[in-house]
Every structure is written in C-alpha cells, then in structure tokens.
Input
Amino acid sequence: MTYDGRPRSVPPGADPTSEDPGDWPTGRLLFAVARRVEQEWNAHLSGWDLNHAGFPVLLHLFGGPRTQRELAALSGVTEQTMSRVVARLERSGYVTRTGDPRDRRRRAVEVTDAGRRAAVEAGRVQPAEQLATRGLDPEQASALRELLVAMARAQQAPTADPPGEE
Output
C-alpha cells in the first residue's frame, strides 16, 4: 500500500472517467478487458448455439449426470438461472433431463453426444487463448495466466474480512 492507502498498482491520479486505459484503476481495467473477451467468446460460441453460461455446464457434465442444483453451485449462479441455462441447452439438443436415480423428486441433467461434440469443438484451446491474450507477447501471456490462476485460487479460498473492515 502507498501512503494514501491505494494499492501500488493504481497510478497516482487514476481517473476512472478518462478515455486512456493507462489512467484507469485496476478494477475498471479488469472489467473492460473481461467484458471484451466475454463478448468475443460469446460470438465464437454462437457458432455452436452456445454462450458463456452454457458452455461450462456442458464441461461439468462430462463427468456424468448432475442435478440442476449441483450445476448451479458449480457455476456460481442461482438454481433459477441454471434452469434457464439448462432449458436452452436442452432446446439445442445438447442435454437431456431424466429422473434422478438418487432422488425421485429431482431430475438429472446429462450431456448428449451432440453436446459433447459441440463442447469439444467450441472449446479448442487456441481460439480462447487468442481472444484472451490479444496484444500480449508470449511472456506477457504467461505472466497474465499466472496472475489469473493466483486470483482464481484466491477466489476459491475462504474469505477473510475485506480490507479496512475489522
């Protein structure tokens, strides 16, 4: 932290309203880049009638059938949201819902062969890497990946009190 309490990575005089990304706080930078990547990733996935919400659900199902509740927890969304995601995947022929043998009140979601093929084709590594690392050289892309892995792992860890609250 600097003497005024801002993280060192925020430039002095950071201005979230500036047109120059070099003036933006880190949060705005992350949001702007993530939004661009999400838009481009959705455009890529649309070739398979998928989006950023449905694609990871198909991947979660590669390990076997799951309930909508399990899929919602894995995806970090509500069960209501997951119901809409699964309904869209079902309309596309990528999943089926059947009675859950563990609990007759629930239905299990299972990936179809078409869903498996679509996820494998859409999820080829190269297009995603190109979208996420555009403008970076290989060393920068590697450093970005290391930082994002560290951030993702920190998000999975139990949270402590936010900075400044005790």
In short: Residues 124-156 form one domain. The chain has two domains: 25-122, 124-156.
